[in-house]
Every structure is written in C-alpha cells, then in structure tokens.
C-alpha cells in the first residue's frame, strides 16, 4: 500500500488545486451572496439557497475525487478547508445515502423522524398522497433525495 501523505489544514494547496479554483471561487461568491440576503422576510427560502450551494460544492469536490480527477492529497486538503461539508460527504459513502441533501434530514431531532424527502417517490405515489403531503425537506428545500429516485 502506498503511503498517504498526511495533509495539514494550513498547508499550501496541493498540486491540482488551480484546476478547481475557478469553480470553487464561483461557488464561494454565490454562497456569500446568499448569506447577504435578508433572512427576515423569507427565512426558509434563503436558508435553502445556502444549503443547496453547500451541497453543490461538496458534490463537485466529491465527484472530482471519485472520478479520480483530483489526488487523494488534494481531496484531503479540501476536506480540511471550510469549502466542503465533510459530514455530508461522509454520508454519501453509505449505501442508500448517495443523494442525501443535507445532514439534518437524517437527524431525528430535527424532523421527528426521517425527512419526507428521503421517502422514495414510488412509495409516495403508492400511497397516492403526493400532492397532499409536503415533500420538501424543511431544512434545505430538497424535493426528494432517496437513492432510488
Ligand atoms: Zn432530501
Ligand atoms: Zn435536506
């Protein structure tokens, strides 16, 4: 097994970072914009935006790593930075959680059980209550992130 070099948080970016930098910078700017929005008028919607961007950045970095487009060293380094949501990525590695939208969805205390967006669409249709039931995740606005959807 090749030895994996331990990366430090304050270390300079490993090789390959410049390839991701423009995209990451773009996402960071979007995030800042979303955070500036007045949260008093539409609290939920503005928070959703932040969660969604957070999800997109994490997904971008994770996909790059899974498709071997970035090195393990760079991936580890990015995880140490505040760019990505480490907890969310950790969940994606588990079967059935590949598309999880936000970590709150699986935390019982926030939803009093599994979030509605985690219920597969087929199940919702089976029960014929698709339009009667709110299918959005209250934390991030996700409209369904079950792995089978
Ligand atoms: Zn969801
Ligand atoms: Zn969610």
Automatic annotation (TrEMBL):
InterPro entries: BUD31
A Gene Ontology term for the protein's cellular component: Prp19 complex
Protein keywords: Nucleus
Domain of life: Eukaryota
Location of the protein in the cell: Nucleus
Biological processes, Gene Ontology terms: mRNA splicing, via spliceosome
Family according to the record: Belongs to the BUD31 (G10) family.
Protein name listed in UniProt: G10 protein
């Amino acid at each position: 097994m090749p030895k994996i070099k331990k990366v430090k948080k304050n270390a300079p970016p490993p090789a390959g970072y410049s390839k991701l930098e423009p995209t990451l910078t773009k996402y960071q700017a979007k995030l800042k914009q979303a955070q500036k929005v007045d949260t008093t008028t539409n609290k939920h919607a503005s928070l959703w935006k932040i969660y969604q961007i957070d999800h997109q950045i994490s997904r971008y970095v994770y996909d790059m790593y899974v498709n071997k487009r970035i090195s393990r060293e760079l991936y580890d380094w990015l995880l140490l930075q505040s760019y990505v949501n480490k907890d969310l990525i950790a969940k994606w590695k588990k079967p059935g959680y590949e598309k999880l939208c936000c970590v709150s969805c699986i935390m019982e205390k926030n939803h009093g059980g599994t979030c509605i967006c985690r219920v597969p669409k087929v199940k919702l249709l089976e029960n014929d209550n698709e339009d009667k039931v709110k299918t959005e995740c209250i934390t991030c606005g996700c409209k369904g992130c079950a792995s089978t959807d």
